[in-house]
Design brief:
UDP-N-acetylmuramoyl-L-alanine:D-glutamate ligase; 13 strands; 307 residues; 11 helices; 36% helix; 9-stranded mixed β-sheet; binds adenosine monophosphate; alpha/beta
Length: 307
């Protein structure tokens, strides 16, 4: 059940209608690792940080069994910095600042001890680097999942299209699926994306759940209706961590098991949004996760008598 996770480890500045944080730990790989470590021991992390990234944050990840051999520390540069502001509906946000800093000359090197991993989670990162990681894996992992965002579609579309031909599962949100294909209908967008490389597509719809497409099949996982959504930052990466964490734990990549995996992803994302940054993800226990998964079962379980 070996899992390699690639992505950013960052500082974020976040403003939501319910509060503001000027400098909080974030990054796609940070959220994926905190989440996946509930399911997989020895998550093999690949990322880059600067001199300013707190050692205690790395220690906390290590204490959860996250292997940091593939995390490069650059002594004279700052960590990646992202700043975003949410609107009242919390489903839309504006990116205010993306400071690449250490990411600008990141050239990920996969440690020898990471070779042979069966699962590869390419978290949100420059598409060319996602491609470089795939090329460095001497044995192709049995499942490669890729997350991306509008930013990379704007600045690196050709690289993104190329890496799409090398992966199994693509994760994007609804507006990114539309941006990538020029189709407004999500079903049309999905059909187009499934001709671009990935055999499976997950379209995340924030508080409206997530859709899983494969061939002509589609499955829907709701999001848990929550009274208070505090900060949605990282919800997509947390979803990814739950999805791949479940698949890696069960070592089963069938469509049926992916259905369960998107429910697990949705359950994990529902924790993430309850507090700022990754705060809630650090608190939750296995019992909390099991209880939340039960709530999902209740949410979608119904009988119908067709007469
Ligand atoms: P999400 O809310 O799941 O889309 O993820 C938000 C996290 O992604 C934040 O913690 C950011 O640090 C990180 N992030 C934002 N923009 C980028 C980017 N262009 N590439 C990689 N990571 C990013």
């Amino acid at each position: 059940m070996s899992l390699v996770v690639v992505g950013t480890m960052a500082f974020d500045a976040i403003e939501t209608p319910f509060g503001k944080e000027d400098k909080i730990i974030g990054g796609s790989a940070t959220y994926v690792a905190y989440t996946a470590s509930n399911f997989v021991k020895d998550v093999k992390q690949v990322s880059i940080v600067g001199y300013d990234f707190p050692q205690e944050e790395l220690d906390q990840l290590a204490a959860r069994g996250v292997n940091l051999e593939g995390v490069e520390v650059i002594p004279d540069k700052k960590s990646f910095f992202w700043s975003g502001k949410y609107h009242m509906d919390m489903n839309t946000r504006d990116t205010l600042i993306t400071d690449l800093n250490v990411l600008a000359d990141f050239n990920p090197v996969i440690p020898e001890s990471y070779q042979g991993a069966e699962f590869l989670m390419l978290g949100n990162l420059m598409p060319a680097l996602q491609k470089s990681v795939i090329q460095q894996m001497k044995i192709r992992p049995k499942l490669i999942v890729l997350d991306t965002m509008n930013f990379w579609m704007e600045v690196a579309l050709e690289d993104l299209k190329e890496v799409l031909t090398m992966i199994d599962v693509l994760m994007v949100n609804d507006s990114e699926a539309r941006q990538l294909t020029g189709e407004f209908s999500l079903v049309k967008a999905a059909n187009k994306i499934l001709t671009m490389g990935p055999k499976y597509l997950i379209i995340k719809k924030g508080e409206h759940g997530a859709l899983l497409f494969h061939n002509n099949k589609v499955f829907f996982a709701p999001a848990l209706p929550l009274e208070d959504v505090f900060d949605p930052t990282g919800a997509g990466d947390t979803f990814a961590g739950g999805f791949i964490g479940h698949l890696a734990k069960t070592r089963n990549i069938s469509f049926e098991n992916m259905k369960t995996a998107i429910i697990v992803g949705s359950a994990m994302a529902s924790f993430c949004v309850e507090k700022f940054g990754a705060t809630r993800l650090k608190e939750i226990t296995k019992a909390d996760i099991d209880t939340r998964l039960q709530e999902f079962v209740q949410l979608v379980n119904f009988d119908i008598a067709l007469v």
